[in-house]
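Deliverable D2.4 — example input (structure tokens):
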């Protein structure tokens, strides 16, 4: 069916038929993807209303007017002590329109707003076209009704299921494809809360925030999110919430466990996990082998931590080995790793000026230094370093090798995916508090991303599935 024909049934105003939210509301297969979640929501809504009924049932003293009424009918016994039940029942409350509320939460980002329920409600209230597109043809829901919808979805962990279904359907339809590696990194989500001093008796306003120091002058009170990504396609698969002050390297285990529990079909494809240097620990290397097998590599750059440069004595032409494990010659050039000598357990480094195998364009060396360092050798000098002298380098897959650098370059896609989530879907800031709301926030943002991926293919513009600014104006 042509897009314009399908959208004509939804409203009389043709000028907004080409907007992203109208197309997505009409063309995305909402019921096919989320029907099971709708049934679960209906059951949870019933339990929620029943809990509200029980919560509001309470005894209260009689008012003077009620006492007078009882006296008139001849009831005189213990009027002062008599109490009656007050029940503000949820019975008769109209059911929440699941599909309309879901569309509103998943499409509000296209109006350049965040994922907070307040922002979604304001868009519905101020933008009639958006409300009609979502399915609110008569009455726009109150803020409390929309907040109740979000609360039920959050407490029932249904936003997590929305995210899993929206990602899985894209794999099933081959809109995105499994890859042989997973890139993961952490980022911060600014929190709408404060922290109390450690010696204060007051509790923090949020149990999941922490102080994140990006530099000496930049500090955030924020939640920490771990975002695993398909590196070649720059597509995030999830956003898992952690306490704000959790060390980055401690998030790897639970992130991988959650990821492959959510998407077990990805596990057979994976042979590498790409991470930042902070994840480069012996524990994480052992962890990866235990979880995913001995053939899966943890690809991280060297993290020097507290190491310092080491001066080299007794070797002509070599002045030091820096904290990253790279030798430096007297000309100030960094030697290039050529390979390993497994028999003698050492790394083999070559000259970046004269060696044809690792020549770096633009580097020069004076005749005096060439004599002192390489003894005028046409291919430059070679320098062997015992593997135990540079333990920061991974012997099995050295970080300074060309193969490692080519594999690690794919991790840059993780930064692009996180940037998209923050700039487009409102991932940058969370208005609610506590970890369960932080997790729901990440799930909503990733689900909105994957809904956009399918919409790019439905619009026959798959080239726009990672370009939120262009897909909003595409016709």
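Example output (designed residues):
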């Amino acid at each position: 069916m042509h897009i314009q024909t399908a959208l004509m049934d939804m409203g009389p105003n043709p000028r907004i038929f080409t907007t992203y939210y109208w197309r997505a509301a009409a063309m995305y297969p909402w019921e096919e993807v989320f029907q099971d979640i709708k049934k679960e929501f209906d059951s949870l809504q019933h339990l929620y209303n029943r809990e509200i009924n029980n919560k509001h049932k309470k005894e209260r003293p009689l008012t003077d007017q009620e006492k007078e009424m009882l006296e008139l009918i001849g009831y005189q016994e213990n009027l002062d002590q008599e109490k009656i039940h007050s029940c503000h029942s949820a019975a008769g409350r109209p059911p929440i329109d699941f599909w309309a509320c879901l569309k509103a939460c998943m499409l509000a980002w296209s109006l350049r707003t965040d994922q907070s329920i307040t922002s979604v409600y304001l868009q519905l209230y101020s933008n009639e076209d958006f409300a009609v597109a979502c399915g609110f043809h008569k009455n726009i829901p109150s803020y409390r009704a929309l907040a109740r919808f979000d609360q039920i979805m959050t407490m029932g962990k249904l936003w997590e299921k929305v995210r899993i279904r929206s990602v899985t359907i894209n794999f099933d339809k081959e809109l995105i494809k499994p890859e042989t590696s997973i890139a993961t990194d952490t980022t911060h989500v600014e929190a709408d809360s404060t922290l109390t001093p450690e010696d204060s008796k007051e509790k923090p306003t949020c149990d999941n925030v922490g102080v994140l120091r990006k530099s000496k002058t930049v500090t955030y009170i924020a939640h920490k999110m771990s975002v695993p990504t398909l590196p070649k396609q720059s597509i995030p698969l999830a956003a898992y919430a952690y306490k704000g002050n959790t060390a980055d390297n401690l998030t790897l285990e639970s992130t991988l466990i959650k990821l492959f529990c959510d998407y077990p079909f990805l596990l057979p494809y994976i042979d590498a996990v790409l991470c930042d240097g902070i994840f480069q620990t012996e524990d994480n290397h052992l962890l990866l082998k235990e979880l995913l097998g001995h053939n899966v590599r943890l690809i991280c750059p060297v993290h020097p931590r507290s190491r310092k440069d080491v001066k080299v004595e007794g070797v002509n032409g070599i002045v030091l080995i820096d904290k990253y494990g790279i030798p430096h010659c007297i000309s100030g050039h960094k030697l290039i790793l050529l390979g390993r000598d497994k028999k003698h357990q050492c790394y083999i480094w070559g000259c970046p000026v004269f060696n044809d195998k690792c020549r770096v364009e633009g580097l020069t060396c004076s005749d005096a230094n060439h004599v002192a360092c390489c003894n005028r050798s046409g291919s430059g000098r070679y320098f062997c370093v015992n593997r135990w002298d540079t333990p920061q380098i991974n012997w099995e897959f050295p970080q300074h090798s060309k193969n490692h650098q080519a594999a690690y370059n794919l991790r840059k896609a993780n930064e692009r995916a996180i940037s998209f989530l923050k700039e487009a879907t409102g991932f940058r800031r969370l208005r609610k508090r506590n970890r369960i709301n932080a997790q729901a926030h990440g799930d909503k943002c990733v689900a909105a991303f994957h809904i956009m991926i399918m919409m790019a293919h439905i619009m026959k513009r798959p080239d726009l599935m990672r370009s939120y600014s262009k897909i909003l104006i595409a016709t």
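Residues 1-8, 73-88 have pLDDT under 50 and may be disordered.
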